[in-house]
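Late entry, written up from scratch paper. The run itself happened at the end of the previous shift, but nothing got recorded in the book at the time, so transcribing now.
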Amino acid sequence: MNQSEKEKIVDILQKNFFGAHLATCDGTHPRVRPVAPILEDDLSIWVATHCSSKKVPQIRNNPKIALSFLEPGGAKVALVTGEAEIVEDLEAKKRVWKIAPLDLSRFFPDGQESPDYCLLKVTVKRIEWRDSWTREISIFKPS
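Output as recorded:
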């Protein structure tokens, strides 16, 4: 993958984070819910969540996840598959809090040190993406 393609993927993910959907497994049943992933330029993906959320034990039982990012109208899309891990490290929580595109204090009024604030760190295994209706789906696999 060249740098231009990576920049296109980052652009799709960053511009369409709001209303992204996360799929986890609950036993043998898929569970999908809206999330607002936090994306870094190196394709690191984080999801801020409540430790009490149902997705936390689902990920502990089966870390395989999928994330979908879809531009309104559907021309640009990215489908991420990978694995998530629960991160409760305070320094990581503080760092991600600062880069989040949403005001996380709306969801965690006790702030960065809230005992119910944790992160999901997504390890990307594959991204299927396109940046227009006329483009075929491309596959990105990190090295």
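The helical segments are 3-15, 55-61, 90-99.
(Scratch paper discarded after transcription.)
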